[in-house]
Structures are given as C-alpha cells and as structure tokens.
From TrEMBL:
GO biological processes: positive regulation of transcription by RNA polymerase I; rRNA processing
GO cellular component, one term: nucleolus
Pfam families referenced in this protein's UniProt entry, alphabetically: UTP15_C, WD40
Name used for this protein in its record: Protein SLOW WALKER 1
InterPro entries: U3_snoRNA-assocProt_15_C, WD40/YVTN_repeat-like_dom_sf, WD40_PAC1, WD40_repeat_dom_sf, WD40_rpt
Chain ranges of the U3 small nucleolar RNA-associated protein 15 C-terminal domain: 388-529
WD repeats: 178-213
Region of interest called Disordered, as start-end residue ranges on this chain: 14-33
Gene3D superfamilies (alphabetical): YVTN repeat-like/Quinoprotein amine dehydrogenase
Classification via SMART domains: WD40
Organism of derivation: Dioscorea cayennensis subsp. rotundata
Keywords from the named record: Nucleus, Repeat, rRNA processing, WD repeat
PROSITE patterns the UniProt entry points to: WD_REPEATS_2, WD_REPEATS_REGION
Localisation: Nucleus, Nucleolus
Amino acid sequence: MAAADLQSYFPAESSAAVLPPPRRPRPSTPESNFWRSFRKSQLSPSFILPVSSLDFSPTAPHDLAVAASASIHLLDGSSISPKPYSPLSSGFSDLAHSPSFRSDGALLAAGDSSGLVHVLDPSHSRPPLRRLRAHTRAAHVVRFPKSPNDKLHLFSGGDDALLCYWDIPSETSVLSIAGAHKDYIRAGAASPVNTEIFATGSYDHTVKIWDVRVSPESNPVSSFNHGNPVESLLFLPSGGLLATAGGNVVKLWDVIGGGRLIHSMESHNKTVTSLCLEKFGDGSDDEQSRILSVSIDGYLKVFDYAAFKVTHSMRFPAQLLSVGFSPSGSAWVVGASNGTLYFGKKRTEKKEIVASVASEFDGFVAEPQKRALRPSYYRYFHRGQSEKPGEGDLIVKKAAKLKLAEHDKLLKKFRHRESLVSALRRGNPNSIVAVMEELVARKKLLKCVENLDVDELGLLLGFLHKHATTPRYARFLMGLVKKVLEMRAEDVRSSAILRGHVRNLKRMVVEEIQVQRSLQEIQGMISPLLVIAGR
C-alpha cells in the first residue's frame, strides 16, 4: 500500500494532544471554611451496641455522655477520649437511653429499657444518686430543664406512653400523665426560656406542648401532627420555634402561633434520627445558628433555618443515630449504628500560624510552646516532684505506706474464715489473737470455727494447745477451747489427728492445774513470813 493511501486511511493526528478542561475549584464560602476547620477522626469500634443518643455538658470542659449498651460512657470534651472512670455502668440492668446533663453539669440523668430513670454524678463512677420508678416499659426520653433556675426537676417519657415530671430530691412524680400519647414516646425537648414548658413527640405522629402550671392532667397546651413517627425534637434558642424530625422530613413549627407549620425540609432519603443545634462564634446571633440532622442514609445535613436552605452535608459509611455539637464550638460528634463514634475537633490557630511561618522560612523550626497544665492532665498532679529543696525550705516527708498483712486484707474484704486460717498458718500469736478479737467484735468467730475443715481445725487446736496457758491470752483462749470442743465434738471423734490434739490439750490442762496448785502451796508458805517481816 502506498504512503499516500496510508495517510488517507489513517487521518493525521494533530500535533498537540487535546486535554480535558481543568476542574474548577469549589467556591470558598464562610460555611465551607468553617466545616473545613475541623479535623475529622473516629473511635472505632468504640462500643458493642449502636450509639443511640449522646449529650454534651453545658459547662466547661463540656464533657460528652454517650448511651451505648447497658452503660453511659463519659468522654473528655476537649480530647473526645474516655474518662478514667468511664463507663458509668453501675445500676443499669438493661440498655441505657437518653443521657441528659443538668444546666450546671453537676448531674446526669438517663433512662433504661427496664423503665428506670437514673440520676448520676458524672464526676465519679458510683451507684446512682436517685432511681425514679414509674415507667413499666423502656424510658427513651429523659430531659432536664435548660434554664439554670430549676435544678430540682426533670421529665421522662417511655414506651408505655406515660409522661412524668419528677421532683428529684424526694424521688416522687409531681406530674404523671398516663396515655399522654397513643404510642411510644421517643422524643422530648425542654424549653430554653421557661422551666415549666416542654415538648414530647411520639410514634403516633403527634407533637404535644405541655405546661405543668396549666391543668396538666387534662389536655396539652398545644398539639400538632408531624405526619410521621417522631424521632427527635429541638427547641430553637428563642423558645418560639420547634424543629421536629420524623420519616425523611424535618419541619419547623411556630409554637407561639399555636403550632403553625413554617417550613418543611426533605433533604434526607431515609428516616431522620436525631437533631441538634450548632452556632458560630458565641451564638449570640440567631442568623448564625444551624440545625444539624443525621439519618440512617449516612448523611449529616446542616440546615440554615433563617434562609431555609441546606448549607453543608457530610457522608459517613454507616447509619447515623445521634448527633451533638459542643457548646464551646470546638467539636462535633456523630454516633453510628455499628458502634462507631465519628467526631471532628477544631484546629487550633497557633498550630496553623507555626506551620505557615515554617513554610515561608527555609530551615526555620518554630519552638513548640508548652501546653499549660490543667487538672484534667495526669502530669498536673506530679508537678514539682523533681524540684530540689532550697536552704530555707521546710521538708515534709511523705508517710510510708502501711503494708497490710494477708489476714488484714482478707478482713477488709469480709472473708472472715480465710483471714483466720491465714493468721493461723503465719503462726504469730499476737496476730492470731488480734484477728480472733476482731471476729468477736463482728460476731463471726464461732461461725468461722463452725466452717473450718479438719486440717484447719487441727491448726486451731494446735495453736490453742501451745498458747492457751499464756497469761496474756489465757482468759480469752480457755473460753474458746471450751466452745471449740463443744461445737466440733463429732469431728474430733471421727479424726485420729484431732483426737491427738485434744489429748495434748487435756495434758496441758492437767499440767497447768498442777503448776497452779504448786504456786498456791508456795504462796501459803511465803504469806506468814511476809506478815512477820512486816511487823
């Protein structure tokens, strides 16, 4: 084939390759810059069961309470890491639900699937301070009032459709409304401006506003239909607007206007499971507030309710059940159905400044600044221990730690018989008699003697044979010998070793009687001589 034919068969390629047009960078907006300032991370797998609900403390350092499995997990608000005494599992016999901090952060309340409402101390892992009993089925809603003016009440709702308003100190229900809804109560929110007003949402599609001051036993103050089973409620800061989530819809309602629907947002493809409020800066301007919503479709949506539009979204590889935003604005947290906790922590400005300066000046390494020690750090409690004393310093020596013997440790654990046996095997008569006297004070000595086996009883009889006539123990031990022989007579008859110990005891008693008689004879001879010498 000729070269001309080849050129006609294969068209000549252009000398310059055609490249695809470059991708346009996403426009930078204040909203996108704000969310990019968070460094994303996760705790995986954090918990065995789904993270059903969570709540941030309203006071610094804004610790995080997470309900998962049969316990409440506490995480440090600044590092999103578990507290040393977490989880708070004492007292929960079933799945934990709906943790809620009091307005001062000093108390934490949560419900469980048995219907109990627990009031806990979030600073220690100890049994609940109060247990509130009224629900016959799972208590999925527990909320403290938002206002700091009321620290003595909370309300709860459960799958038994019972609504309770509690007085915490007396553990009594001030208000109890049976059949408050026609189905499970799964959502609740307290008004941020009034301690007596709160809202509840149910799987019967209704949302009801309650005021404990106005005929609470009859009808609610207001009621409206969301149109789907209600999963979450959220009062906006003004207290006049309420956001409800159910199905794949988030709706805004005018509470003051009698439950008038303001806006309906359908940005999720599946059921919306949780809502929370997020604010820019100090949150003083309502226009800068956002509603965060999560769904089992795996998306977190940021909704600007002032402009009625979604301003940001994030995708996660799991179904999302709960969401929270730190009041300090430094972290957001999302709980998933697989037990994973996704979170974002805001980058500090100091690190960004150091990185930018280091990139501009070649070879320059910024000296890292030491972090200020805080009481939440381990090194805080060890500060100053490496310092050497000065000439004028008064040195206070640390008292040596008292080392307890094995029998003392067993006594502290109320293992009385094992403590007695441990002291007998050690062979120190002072320790043995001290343990016996302690058991007498606890009214457990005879019970321990009764529960001794043959070998341990042999140890006891051997000790009594050796020390029962010692003057400082004689009065106590001779009475114990009598009790032991009366209580364990059958065991003594059935064991040759124990019979040998008893023969030794009998021989010891006979010898002691002879010694006492000899001493009395000597006393009889010496007494007249002393009387004569005294004249």
